[in-house]
Write a structure and sequence with these properties.
2 copies of one chain form a homodimer. Chain A is α/β, with parallel strands linked by helices and 338 residues long. Chain A is 40% helix and 15% strand. The N and C termini of chain A lie far apart (84 Å). At the A-B interface, helix 4, helix 5, strand 2, helix 6 and helix 10 of A face helix 4, helix 5, strand 2, helix 6 and helix 10 of B. Chain B binds a DNA duplex (30 and 30 nucleotides) through helix 2 and helix 4.
Chain lengths: 338, 338
DNA sequence: TGCTGCAATGTAAACCTTTACATGAAAAAA
DNA sequence: TTTTTTCATGTAAAGGTTTACATTGCAGCA
């Protein structure tokens, strides 16, 4: 037995045909006589031949792999979007590989090399910031689609959720419950999506005619810890809100923990909303009222867009914003009478 | 400007040397005259040349990528082990790619093709079950290291945590607090690691001379939901435990939710322990007493083992079990007096 | 001066495919 | 029967590397 994997030549020898015929039998079966096709298939079965993808890509100048570049695989939003991406890719004959950059430009650069070698045909980017340091590479960017936020470079389509509308839904719920003093616990430095959620919140407050004076905005970094911290800082002030609208679920969870630790009850004493609907949200005590991102759909749409790019079809859209849904659970109630 | 990426030939032309010299200037710089090296480096800078990894692997018959095959990227244990893997790989000139199988043999097979093409040099497997259906492929398995549990195939080294010892530590804590009726909420079908945790629990109970009659074992599937379900089922019985030892944190979280939903207080009425120390564990209310897996270390060791395999060094060990630590938080207390 | 040996570089083959073009045989048309 | 067309297959080049081997030029030595 040979130890190295079988090549097309091994198959050709056994089937007693030329390598060209083997190749055709695989990729253009209708171009090859039925009897020959049979012999080739038998030979393939005998040798266990599987085509060398590298040689193939080298020759063809393209591959059928798509690289998903993510700064943080641990993000609770990531995995279900990935499933959407994978299913769609698979249905069109593409495979998916994941590159984890840990927010490190150096690592991002390494993945970029995949494209000069045709190891991957296209890229899905989970960050607005190109992970490859300087923009100079930009001109040679492979077919790319952003997820969550626009990529800071002209003309890269992206798929996200309508953060403004989502945030507005959340704030409108709070207002409908009777809240007038609402604190936005957020973050607007690193992620554009977060900034837009704040704008959505402001818009809702504006529409309800709630004066700027009774609005509170706190900065965090989107982690559980920062939510807890925000509560601590707020309690140093003389005016407290009756509701906390949080930029994401992690922050909301932190806020709830902070409030419970101080002996308050949610939603009796304070109401809290999140954004994202991470799996954890439904398991909190109380369960978290939040805005759901249609994660599977986001993945599916992003991949569809990328596949259009790859087939040189002019993409039908350059920006897809999906509608987020309000998920009402138990962390919101009317404000307490004081 | 050329639109296709620069090749070694472009560099050679500009540097006015042969392609062989360019190749040597890159990989064996000491074999090339300093002045030539300089010219080549300039030419590389001008062209923006980066070697075509596919052509290189094709020629060399090996790559410098390592494939991490995971059935479920969303597993809260996954991401920090991955970081350990990546850092170690990187320090030795290897890159890491992730393949997500979603527990689907078909997808697993696809990733296997990476090896017949030398697209990857080795593999880290996050499951005891080879994701490629039939064992027949087994003979041609690439260099592989398992994580968490042994791979069901002779001679594949693996790195995990000493589940027996961990489980024992947990049960000993409960016994020390005075618990005598302890329920093990677990799972022993799919994952060997889980079966071992149960054995560790039994061993601890045996050592304390606790009779089999006062032991309870419930089956679940390791999800939050199954923990909650187990509580419901237990409350149908006439004898209740005073403590719940759970096979993992997810189950423990479910158990705590189930108990709180019934109006009980943890740890006053019931004690609960988990296993894994997922990030969520410390944010629960009450925070969860659990067994910590040294995730970064697991990743590091697994990669070290794989790198040994790749360099044809006989691996120093074939099984590495790391010591898990008890993390005492607030979900365990003495049993209530009845 | 004439050799030997070494350092630096070049030439060409090999890795495994795909495919344009060439070839040959059989079927169709004359 | 001869000519043309069609179909099935083969030959060889190309894609971008690395490297064994060949070549060249020069220093060191007798």
């Amino acid at each position: 037995m040979s130890n190295s994997p079988a090549t097309i030549e091994d198959v050709a020898r056994i089937a007693e045909v030329s390598i060209a015929t083997v190749s055709r039998a695989i990729h253009l079966p209708e171009k090859v006589a039925q009897s020959t096709r049979l012999k080739v298939n038998q030979a393939i079965a005998i040798t266990g031949y599987t085509p060398n993808a590298m040689a193939r890509s080298l020759r063809l100048g393209k591959s059928n792999m798509i690289l998903v570049v993510a700064p943080d695989i641990g993000d609770p939003n990531f995995s279900s979007i990935l499933v959407g991406l994978e299913n769609e890719a698979r249905a069109h004959g593409y495979g998916v590989l994941i590159g984890h950059t840990q927010n490190d430009a150096q690592r991002g650069m390494e993945y970029l090399k995949f494209f000069s070698s045709n190891q991957a045909a296209g890229m899905i980017l989970f960050t607005g910031i190109l992970p490859f340091g300087h923009q100079s590479m930009t001109a040679r960017l492979p077919p790319t689609v952003g997820v969550f936020e626009p990529v800071f470079n002209g003309g890269i389509p992206y798929v996200g959720v309508d953060d403004l509308e989502g945030a507005r839904k959340a704030v409108e719920l709070l207002i409908a419950e009777g809240h007038r003093k609402i604190a936005f616990i957020g973050e607007n430095r690193s992620r554009l999506a977060y900034a837009r959620r704040r704008l959505g919140c402001e818009a809702g407050l504006d529409a309800a005619g709630i004066p700027a004076a009774s609005r509170i905005v706190m900065d965090g970094d989107g982690t559980i810890e920062s939510g807890r911290l925000a509560v601590d800082q707020l309690f140093l002030r003389d005016t407290l809100p009756t509701a906390f609208m949080c930029v994401n679920d992690q922050t909301a969870i932190g806020v709830m923990l902070g409030l419970t630790a101080r002996g308050y009850d949610v939603p009796r004493d304070f109401s809290v909303t999140g954004f994202d609907d991470v799996p954890q949200a439904s398991f909190m005590q109380p369960s978290l009222t939040t805005i759901r991102q249609p994660r599977g759909l986001i993945g599916k749409h992003a991949m569809t867009l990328l596949l259009q790019l790859l087939s040189d079809t002019e993409p039908t859209e350059t920006e897809i914003l999906l509608r987020p849904d309000l998920v009402v659970r138990n962390s919101v109630g009317p404000p307490p009478r004081r």
